[in-house]
Specification:
Layout lengths: L1 H27 L1 E5 L5 E4 L1 H7 L3 H4 L4 H4 L5 H12 L3 E10 L3 E11 L8 E7 L2 H45 L6 H22 L10 E3 L1 H13 L19 E3 L5
Antiparallel strand pairs: 1-2, 1-5, 3-4, 4-5, 6-7
Helix pairs in contact: 6-7
């Protein structure tokens, strides 16, 4: 009698484990079976949650009425049918007004024992932890680039300081007509250092600083740079409108 009760208890435990295993499988991923016309034949509990409807209501509906027909999901279904074996793809975007936006690992396999064209679609949504890990990876990469930018800025600003100091020393012994060139050197060095300072914080979302800029002064600076470099043998003609108001912009960027 005791042995019989033991066997019954063992059977009940095995049955309970079987039920628990089914529940785990139900929760792991969305499983949808569709026939050759993409009509839903079977769907599990996770699928009901994804499409926010009961299995009884979803059965008989076409999958391409629930998810846009241009979704990469349907390309996988076609591949599985054509090849006759399982295909899989990671990080597939599933977007529709009904389900919103989801990113899932998708596996599609043909069901040989069912009607021709019938496939089972398994969609395992990426976990929140995976998405957070990806965000942290991107932030880590951004911090690395920021550190590299700071190091580069330091290395650039050191020689710029030497160039500026040399220009100041030369200016003391030059004729007034030639001092414009040394002032140009100093101003351009200051502009480079300003650009480098902004490069150090390029990863932030700070807006570009703008103000009223005299566009004639900006054009005059560009004119002077060109005249003393590539345009040394060219003839420039200036034709400015003195009535133009200040332009709203950033002088160095212009």
């Amino acid at each position: 009698m005791g042995q019989e009760a033991f066997k019954q208890g063992k059977a009940m435990v095995a049955h309970r484990h079987e039920i628990d295993a089914d529940a785990v499988l139900e929760a792991l991923s969305t499983v949808v079976v569709v026939d050759g016309e993409l009509t839903i034949v079977r769907i599990n509990n996770a699928g009901e949650h994804l499409f926010q409807s009961s299995a009884a209501h979803l059965k008989g509906q076409r999958l391409d009425h629930l998810i846009p027909a241009d979704s990469p999901l349907f390309a996988l279904i076609r591949q599985a049918r054509d090849r006759g074996h399982s295909v899989a793809e990671y990080h597939v975007s599933l977007i529709s007004p009904r389900i919103g936006r989801h990113v899932a690992n998708v596996q599609v396999a043909p069901l040989a024992e069912e009607a021709p064209g019938t496939v089972v679609v398994s969609m395992q949504e990426r976990t929140v932890a995976t998405q957070i890990d990806r965000q942290l990876t991107h932030r880590g990469a951004a911090r690395s680039v920021s550190a590299m930018a700071a190091m580069l800025a330091h290395e650039v600003k050191n020689p710029m300081s030497g160039i500026r100091g040399a220009a100041q020393l030369l200016e003391e012994n030059l004729d007034p007509a030639d001092r414009a060139l040394t002032r140009l050197i100093r101003d351009e060095v200051d502009r480079v250092c300003g650009l480098v300072d902004r490069m150090e914080g390029f990863s932030t979302s700070d807006a570009l600083q703008r103000e009223g800029v005299n566009i004639h002064e900006v054009l005059g600076r560009v004119h002077a740079l060109a005249r003393n470099s590539f345009g040394r043998h060219l003839r420039f003609v200036d034709n400015y409108d003195p009535s133009l108001p200040p332009a709203f912009g950033n002088r160095d960027q212009l």
